[in-house]
Amino acid sequence: KLFIDDLKRQNNELRYRENILLSVPDLVIVFDSSGRMPFVSPSVKKFIHFKSDELQDTSLWDRLTPRSGQLVKRAFMDALATGLEVEDSVPLWDGEPRTVKLLDRNGADTKSVALKGIVHFAGEAPECVCTIRPEYLDNRRRSTTPDSHRVSDNETTHLPEPSTT
User: Fold this and answer.
1) Gap between the Cα atoms of 11 and 133, Å rounded
2) Strands of 3-126, DSSP E
3) What local confidence, expressed as pLDDT, does residue 160 receive?
4) Looking at the predicted structure, is the pLDDT value of residue 66 above 90?
5) What are phi and psi for residue 40, nearest 5 degrees?
6) Whole-number percent of the chain with pLDDT over 90
7) Residue 153 pLDDT more than 80?
8) CB atoms < 10 A from the CB of 93, how many?
9) Which of 6, 7, 36, 68 lies deepest, with the highest CB count within 10 Å?
10) Which stretches of 27-97 are assigned E, i.e. beta strand?
11) What does the mean pLDDT of the chain come to?
12) Which residue in 121, 128, 132 sits closest to 46, CA to CA?
């Protein structure tokens, strides 16, 4: 009976956490060093018109522009190098979001998005958990994030600040 009660409690806790995650409007992804995404939140449909199960176990690198892919790969490798010496989790880019570009179903660039992530070392292999949101929603950070952290496949993108009126 105690075992069954414990399983019910754990199941309820998992449902509770799942409901929280489903209510988050940002895209939440988990990926490993090869780019494989074992988890993609349902909100992906708003960003690149895929269902989450269509992207699970596919490569994040196939959903980023080449320049954005390089930026994220480099940050992941930097976090790995730091984390192996110091912590059980390390944020990408010191916890600051970076502008990246996603590719849609047809391989075309989408609008720029803000990606923020943390690499965890607790499991069998390091994984990065990221949130992705439309860049315009990241207004607080945009005013303090240097333009050099914004990504374009050709050059640094200088985006106008949103109107406050």
Assistant:
1) 29
2) 27-32, 39-40, 89-91, 98-103, 109-120
3) 39
4) yes
5) -140, 125
6) 37
7) no
8) 18
9) 68
10) 27-32, 39-40, 89-91
11) 80
12) 132
